[in-house]
Write a structure and sequence with these properties.
Elements lengths: L4 H5 L17 E4 L6 E5 L2 H10 L6 E4 L10
Antiparallel strand pairs: 1-2, 1-3
């Protein structure tokens, strides 16, 4: 029987959602709760600036790796 993403994530309530594969190799800026990606791109300073412009004074910045760990819809 195949599990849904929600069923798989239920035992891990603090784990973030999968990062879309098209962001591989880019920087992303999360909101404070790591529930929404506010900005993404190649240049860290641009990504941070756009997240701040969207109202998040201290975004969580993450470099998305290339490889099999990237997934999502």
């Amino acid at each position: 029987m195949q599990m849904t993403l929600d069923e798989f994530a239920a035992p891990f309530p603090n784990r973030g959602k999968p990062i879309p594969a098209e962001f591989a190799g880019e920087w992303i800026a999360w909101n404070d709760g790591r529930s929404e990606i506010l900005a993404h791109g190649v240049e860290l300073t641009d990504v941070r600036r756009r997240a701040v412009e969207r109202g998040c004074a201290r975004p969580v910045l993450q470099k998305v790796p290339h490889g099999p760990s990237v997934g999502g819809a």
